[in-house]
From TrEMBL:
GO terms for molecular function: magnesium ion binding; phosphoglucomutase activity. Pfam families: PGM1_C_vert_fung (PF24947), PGM_PMM_I (PF02878), PGM_PMM_II (PF02879), PGM_PMM_III (PF02880). Residues 14-151, 189-286, 295-407 form the Alpha-D-phosphohexomutase alpha/beta/alpha domain. Keywords: Isomerase, Magnesium, Metal-binding, Phosphoprotein. It comes from the Bacteria. Belongs to the phosphohexose mutase family. The keyword Phosphoprotein applies. It comes from Octadecabacter ascidiaceicola. This is phosphoglucomutase (alpha-D-glucose-1,6-bisphosphate-dependent).
Length: 543
């Protein structure tokens, strides 16, 4: 083994977005592209010397190669130890857990989450800090800064490291511990939930289908749901992780998880349908014919969490991202605990969780999680639902209907306009931003604006401020429209329009979602002048 310093030069555009650096795979495969970003990360955290890291990814194309690069660079930067998932596999929540469990200094997670994988698709790298959570904005800014001045990276000259066998090996001054990707995570789940009650639920004939979408949760789902909890073989579908996710789009929503949705709306629908994304942090929950929106799922999980052992003592607080509906806030109010509203991005929950201000967090983008790790956690959400179903002995739709009866219903939908020319998307936002101040009191498509502003977040723990986090407009009658540009796309800009309409406490909870949202949607189109600015009002995806 020989230490090696390799000369390099800055590469443009290595600015991490909502969740790490995400680019086309071929971009990551360009000479020094990955190396520069990894070295910049080591530089931004004050070097790798003497440190322990966790490394793993969702198994997509280029995962294995990228891991070899990172392992060698960790050794080159003087790291003491790297813990890596067998064959380079770790789900994002499992990586977060391993960082915390082993008191590591941080971790590299290779994934572009729910984006398709393959040489012509997407790849990504994310650094998580010692708390197990995504790097703060301050740290990602430092990383970006370092990418603009980089002149060399450190690595070692050695053959590729065998990651197929569990165990510890030495590589000069660094040890590499290859671990089973599932076992520590499974033990954590067993410590949170009543596995006996869930086992009994399956024995009683309860049926479910968990769609792993050919992504990382296949082995986790099989080990936990089928082997540990006794769900019949075949409960986990698409359970073999593939480098291209079977050419699918591993995003658990009614559009991309259509195969599951079709089953759930058929005569043979099982009691519960669930799915997770590329790296295992997102979830979708659907009962017989009843899709549960992520915003509702957060609220329902929060309202019932005390039924699971880990949350029996109650919750400290509930946090949601700003575009997520206020359903969770209503639960917080009833429970007499605090509700927090953060910008989009799981990293913003980290401080609140670390400071014990919140126990449960969630986002409209199919993410829910708790203080057990510092990432959202797809299987965790599924297991909490199972635990609640096992205790309440009601169906998913009964639980949802009961929730709406108690709290009122937050009708909710997101419209995504993908691959919009960046300048046009920016113009639209800029144009709307410029008119926000004059909107209050005016009517659009028959709805009067009550407030209009651009969301800024003041972190109550460290006092940091994050500006430009979305344009939000509320209407008379408890309607809301939010405009944001996605921070996770890899092509042009994705405009997100989030629509919400509250039914009121004793209002109509049985409307069709898009019908209930029609007025807010029309008003949003009129206010934003979307047709004129981006030339579209027909979204690519509706969630
Ligand atoms: C990732 C992040 C989430 C975020 C989502 C959508 O999954 O982890 O925190 O909500 O992307 O982000 P975007 O910027 O594309 O709306
Ligand atoms: Zn993900």
């Amino acid at each position: 083994m020989k230490f090696k310093t390799v000369k390099t030069a800055p590469i443009e555009g290595q600015m991490p977005g909502t969740s790490g650096l995400r680019k086309k795979t071929r971009v990551f495969m360009e000479p020094n592209y990955l190396e520069n970003f990894i070295q910049a990360t080591f530089d931004a955290i004050g070097g790798g010397a003497g440190k322990t890291f966790v490394v793993g990814g969702d198994g997509r194309y280029f995962n294995k190669d990228a891991i070899q690069v990172i392992l060698k660079m960790a050794a080159g930067n003087g790291a003491t130890k790297v813990i890596v998932g067998q064959n380079g596999i770790l789900s994002t929540p499992a990586a977060s857990h391993l960082i915390r469990l082993n008191k590591a200094d941080g971790g590299f997670i290779l994934s572009a989450s729910h984006n398709p994988g393959g040489i012509d698709e997407d790849f990504g790298v994310k650094f998580n800090a010692a708390n197990g959570g995504p790097a703060s904005e301050a740290l990602t800014a430092k990383v970006f800064e370092a990418t603009t001045t980089i002149s060399a990276f450190e690595t070692i000259d050695t053959d590729d490291i065998d990651l197929s066998r569990i165990g510890t090996t030495s590589h000069g001054n660094m040890t590499i511990q290859v671990v089973d990707p599932v076992s520590d995570y499974q033990a954590l789940m067993e410590s949170l939930f009543d596995f006996d009650a869930i086992r009994a639920l399956f024995v009683s004939g309860f049926t479910m289908r968990f769609d792993a979408m050919h992504a990382v949760t296949g082995p986790y789902g099989t080990a936990i749901l089928e082997n540990a909890l006794g769900a019949p073989a075949g409960t986990v579908t698409n359970g073999i992780p593939l480098e291209d996710f079977g050419k699918g789009h591993p995003d658990p929503n009614p559009i991309w998880a259509k195969e599951l949705m079709d089953v759930m709306t058929s005569d043979n629908a099982p009691d519960l349908g669930a799915a997770s994304d590329g790296d295992g942090d997102r979830n979708m929950i659907v009962g017989r014919g009843a899709y549960v929106t992520p915003s509702d799922s957060l609220a329902i999980l929060a309202a019932n969490a005390h039924l699971a052992p880990a949350y029996a003592a109650g919750l400290a607080g509930i946090a949601r991202s700003m575009p997520t509906s206020a359903a969770g806030d209503r639960v917080a109010q009833k429970l007499g605990i605090q509700a927090f509203e953060t910008p989009t991005g799981w990293k913003f929950f980290g401080n609140l969780l670390d400071a014990d201000k919140v126990t449960i967090c969630g986002e409209e983008s199919a993410g829910t999680g708790s203080n057990h790790v510092r990432e959202k956690d797809g299987l965790w959400a599924v297991l909490l639902w199972l635990n609640i179903l096992a205790v309440r002995k009601q169906s998913v739709s009964e639980i949802v209907a009961d929730h709406w009866k108690t709290f009122g219903r937050d009708y909710y939908s997101r419209f995504d306009f993908e691959a919009v020319a960046s300048d046009k998307a920016n113009d639209m936002m800029q144009n709307l931003r410029g008119r926000l101040d004059g909107l209050t009191g005016k009517s659009f498509a028959g709805l009067t604006v009550v407030s209009a502003d651009e969301f800024s977040y003041l972190d109550p723990v460290d006092g940091s401020v994050s500006n430009n986090q979305g344009l939000r407009i509320t209407f008379e009658g408890d309607g809301r429209a939010v405009f944001r540009l996605s921070g996770t796309g890899t092509q042009g800009a994705t405009v997100r329009l989030y629509l919400g309409q509250y039914s009121g406490q004793n209002g109509d909870i049985n409307q069709d979602t898009q019908t209930a949202l029609q007025n807010v949607r029309d008003a949003a189109f009129e206010i934003s002048e979307m047709q004129a600015t981006i030339g579209r009002v027909d979204p690519d995806v509706i969630t």
